[in-house]
Amino acid sequence: xxxxxxxxxxxxxxxxxxxxxxxxxxxxxxxxxxxxxxxxxxxxxxxxxxxxxxxxxxxxxxxxxxxxx
Length: 69
Known about the structure:
2 helices; 5-stranded antiparallel beta sheet
């Protein structure tokens, strides 16, 4: 996983959130990720714990795009 984030730092990388959907201690964020001129939809789910800190982050998206980066 560190190699993935390192590769993103070298490329043009952007995440554009479309909505923020809150339900209790979870926030769902459908978004579009663009990296190195390629775009894909993804959904992030953040779970918040005590004092508003993120305790869990789940990302569902185009794994094939991530493998190419």
